[in-house]
Each structure stands twice: as C-alpha cells, then as structure tokens.
Amino acid sequence: MTLRLGAFVHRRIIAPGALAAASVLLAIPASAASTSPGAPGIGDPYYPAYGNGGYDVSHYDLRLKYQPATDELEGTATILAKTTQDLSRFDLDFLLDVSEVRVNGAVAAFTTSGEHELEITPKTPLAKGTTVTVVVRYSGIPSSKQAYGFTSWHRTADGGVGANEPEAAWWWFPSNDHPLDKATYDVSVLVPDGSQAISNGTLQSTSSRLGWTRYNWRSNKPQATYLATLAVGKFDITTGTTESGIPVVNAYSKDLGDNAGAARASIERTGEIADWLSGYFGPYPFDALGGYVPNTNTGYALETQTRPFYSPRQFASGSNVSVVVHELAHQWYGDYVSVAGWKDIWLNEGFARYAQWLWSEHEDEGTAQELADYVYASHPADDAFWTVKPGDPGAANQFDIAVYDRGALAVQALRNEIGDDAFFAVLKGWPHKHAYGNASVVDFQKYAEQISGRQLGALFDTWLFQPAKPTAPAARTASIAKVSAAPAQPKSWKKIAATNDAHEH
C-alpha cells in the first residue's frame, strides 16, 4: 500500500520583515489592500496541501489532445468558479507544464511551489463573491511527473490512465483537488484514429478529421475531482441500458489476455447490480453507468463517478461480481454523497463493503450477520486490526482493511441496534439527505439517531472510534458473535476477501 502521509506537505515560505510586507502592499491597488492569498490547502488535516482556499469551482471544461505513443498531453482547461474571499492570489493543484493563464480574459502571472501547487496572481485582485473564469494552457508527459514520491498516472501499452484516490487530477488537469469542491465536467479528448478516450458521464459526440478522433464526454452532476477519470487506449466497448433506463457504457482493453472473459462476465452485470442496489439506496443518482478495465499493472479498483475503474488483477482468478457491487455501491456512498474530510472515509468504504455483505445474502452465500460474526471472531483482541479506528483512521491507515471489514461490522452493529425497519430507512434516506453534497460521520450519526429515535453515541464510539476490540458484552449487546463456538466461514468470504487488494491505492 502506498501511504499518503500528511507530513508530506509543502510549507509556503513567508518573507519576514516590514519591508517585505510593504512591498506586497505597494504591488496591488490601495483599494485592494485588504485582499489576501487563498490558502494553499482546503483545510483537511489528513492532507493539508490538498485542495485550495478562496474560491469554489462550479464547472471544468477540459479540451485535450493526447498522443498514446509518447504519452504527450496538451490541454486547455476552462474553470468556472466564484470567490469566497477577497483574493490577491489563488492556487490550483497541478503538475504539468503551464504556458499561459488567463483570469477573466486578462493574462495572469503564475508560478509553482511545493510539490503540486500552481500559484496564480490575477492582473487585478478579485473581490469576494466574484464570478471568475480561469483558462490554463498546458502540456507535458504525465508519466514523467511525481509528487510526494508517487504517480497517479498509469502508463499502458496503448496509452494512459488517470485514476487514483485521494488524488489523480494533478496529472491531467488543474483543479481544486478535494471532495469538498465538487463540480460538473465537459471532457473533450482528441486521440489518433484507432484509439478511444473514456471518461465519466455520457458520450455526447465523436468526430474524426485528418487521422484524429475527438470524444466529447459530459458529467452533468457534481463530481469530486478524484472521481474524474481519463483513459486512452484501444478498447472493446459494449453498450446497453439498465432495466430502469440508464445507459451503460463498458470498455475493456483489447490486450487483457486471460483476464478478458472474467472481466466481462463481471462488469457486464453492472446494470443488473445497479438496479438491485437502488432497492437499498434509492434511485440511481446519475444519468450514465458503466465500467472500464485498462491493461494496467495496478491492483486496485476505484469508484470513478458513473464509470468505475477496475484493474485486470481483479479478475485474475475468475469473475468477481463482488468488486463490481463494491464500486457501484460507492456511486451512492462516496460519489452522490462525498466525504466532508478524508477522515470520514468510513462513510464510503464501510457501506460499500456492507453492500458486498448484502449481495452475499442475495446470493445465499452467507448473511450479513454471519459475515459480521466471522469478522469479529477472526481477529483476536491483540490483532492490530482493532487498533485502526474506522471513524478516524488517520491518513496512513485510510485504506487499511480494518476501515472496510471493521467498518462493515460497525454497520451491522447499527442494524442490530436500531432494527431492520429503521436501518433500511437510514440506508436509503441518507444519500437523498445529502444529495450531490458532502457529509461527515458526525452528520451520519445524527441522521441515524433522528430516524431511529435512539441515542447512538455509545455504539458509534465502541465500533468506530475505540482502538480496541469491542468486549464480549458489547458484542452481545450489538448481537455480534452471540454463539460461543467459532462461526463457520461463509461461502462468500473468499470472494469478498479477493477484493481486498482492490483498495490498496
């Protein structure tokens, strides 16, 4: 697992002394003397340098040209935003080489700092509440760029892919890279004839000219930056429609080899699974659906909005419908409602894992209760598994298996505490409550208390926030592991466990 430690943050150097301060004041009009730079981070304690302060983005228009043979990317990003403070300067998160920046039509000064900051100084300061159009022209080779010692761009034999969590945008478009700033997207990509460009949402059009084909994709619902994806390569593409009427586009690299059949046998069930999940979570919240499997050497899958990313390794041992269930569950828990901060990751992973448990029930391969009992019994009290707190695991443990398995165990404990009627009302009502927005674990507890009419502080503390295995009395109170004998391994366990490496970002 690659750890994204919060310590790997850049620190802006402030010039000391009154002379430096005076020079800053002289550099801007007196009427704008009260303006200040936007913060270089949005305020997430796990990743202090991720995202930016001072503005809120509403839309990204990305016009790109990509050459698969050389991994060269050229782009023009048009970013629509509104300022949230009086701004003298603001940052975007980005790694490629910038040739020009314009703010509201005027050329703006720019420089880079830290690991991934693009600092932009507009010709005139921006007042709070101003509508802003930022145009960034750029180019570069994404696979040549690293930040904090890693890359989120995956070079393939026939192209490249941008997909990772909690960051992927820096390698292919400038952004305010944090889930708190969701926006809509238009992604237009020019690639050589014979290659395809896959992104989120619906394919609006394609056109070919002089050996190049342009693909125009649109995501018309708010989308977090890490959920935006781009994949260029040679794909076999299938299309269809779910029973509920949602168009489905799936894409498979032509060179998946022995994994091709298992990948298709799993992902072609996307529409069926989404319709099934809507019975638990409410209507599917977007107007597009699908999945794609590029021939990468990564091991993880990712809930990229409307079109999850899967690595071939997910299907190396055969079909794996459980991982499809997991990533599609995220369309509600993670995409429709996104985390307020990365410490709230349980709201994504605990519930996506629990969806796999519900699928196990659906397939008669073990109930959620049997899976919970098995997880509880499988980890002795001195297992490090219990030291990770799913409700606030820390950046180093954000994708630890405990966030998934202990996280799902906490969901089952909640179900047993409040009863099925209230539990399934919470499960379906929660995404609608915070539709297309953000929320925290604290928000979820309050909502569960409101719907159930119960005080749940002790239960949440025991199962999500204590760095220790809940005691036998606490487990019995939550109807976990009531039997004294070690529970048998549910039939679905190996399939579920086979998805574990899907989360090692």
Automatic annotation (TrEMBL):
Gene3D superfamilies: Neutral Protease Domain 2, tricorn interacting facor f3 domain. Residues 1-32 form the signal peptide. It comes from the Bacteria. GO terms for molecular function: alanyl aminopeptidase activity; metallopeptidase activity; zinc ion binding. Residues 319-463 form the Peptidase M1 membrane alanine aminopeptidase domain. CDD domains: M1_APN_like. Its cofactor is Zn(2+). Residues 58-227 form the Aminopeptidase N-like N-terminal domain. The keyword Signal applies. Keywords: Hydrolase, Metal-binding, Metalloprotease, Protease, Signal, Zinc. One of its GO terms (biological process) is proteolysis. Its EC number is 3.4.11.2. InterPro entries: Aminopeptidase_N-like_N (IPR045357), Aminopeptidase_N-like_N_sf (IPR042097), Peptidase_M1 (IPR001930), Peptidase_M1_aminopeptidases (IPR050344), Peptidase_M1_dom (IPR014782), Peptidase_M4/M1_CTD_sf (IPR027268). This is Aminopeptidase N. The lineage of its organism: Bacteria, Bacillati, Actinomycetota, Actinomycetes, Kitasatosporales.
